[in-house]
Amino acid sequence: MKYECDVIEDLLPLYKDGVCSKASLKAVEEHLAECPKCTQMLNALKDTVIDELIVRERDEVIDSQSRFFKRRSAVIGSVLAAVFALPILICLIVDLASGNGLGWFFIVLASMLIPTSIFVVPLMAPKNRMFLTMCSFTFSVILLLAVICIYSRGSWFFIAASSVLFGLSLCFVPFIVCRRPVNAYLKNYKGLAAMTIITATFFLMMICIGIHVASRKYFILAFGISVPMVLLVWVVFLIIRYMPANGFVKAGTSIGVISIGSFVANMMITQIVISKLDEVMVYTDHSQISSIIGVVIGMILITIGLVVKKGENKENA
Questions:
Q1: What pLDDT digit, counting tens, does each position of 252-290 carry?
Q2: Domains of the chain, residue spans
Q3: Residue 178 CB: number of other CB atoms within 10 A?
Q4: Is-contact 249 305, C-beta < 8 A?
Q5: What is the pLDDT of residues 216-247, one digit of tens each?
Q6: CA within 13 Å, CB half, 293
């Protein structure tokens, strides 16, 4: 034989998969024509029955465990749902026996949806558990506020609902945009979408409060104070997220923008507040020093960032 069996045995896996070179292919075929041992080894490599059995058993084990956990989750979810339904049933019986209507029944019913959304939904949902849990929790809280407002004959629902929606969006939206199925649609615009939603819920809250207050002075003061600060937050976000620079430059630019922007916004807000107040107000502004210090720190960080970038370019060259 021209080649030893040890050499051919090393080439057999490549020969079986059809990825060896032409020279190796010719050498293996010449050797197989003369060596029954290597031919038998090649036939063993081509036999995929064992591999298929292993894959089938693996899939069966995974499927069995998946069904087991689904059944266990369903049982736990059913038990929790029954526990949460108990106070609802008790309240229904008490309301019917007292003859005072079903006000407390609907309030308790809505309130029980909150722990249900936290404990039952994650256990019962087949997929997208975090997304469904956060959405159901938000809906249940707003529904509870609506039921309480209706049966207490209040007029505060839109203020409370918009405020809760803004607060929950601050907590939940950054996580929701990064989880399925939302992240598949947003792709590289998750941060932009989160900032847009939070800003929208904030101004919705301000509008609802203004409508309830029914004062023209409120809108001038509220939006005159909040809009400059929201714009400042947006500018800092865009710098951090989209500015093509290293961390030092981004940090320095952000500090400088915050220092200058807060000083300008402070002046604008002060003028708006003083102009809308009936009484004379004496105001002393000490923000100039802090703004100057912030600008200096920002310039130092930008300089460090540029030096670091220059050193990296030299190393790459």
A1: 999 999 999 888 877 777 776 666 655 444 445 566 788
A2: 69-154, 225-317
A3: 14
A4: yes
A5: 788 888 888 888 889 999 999 999 989 988 89
A6: 5
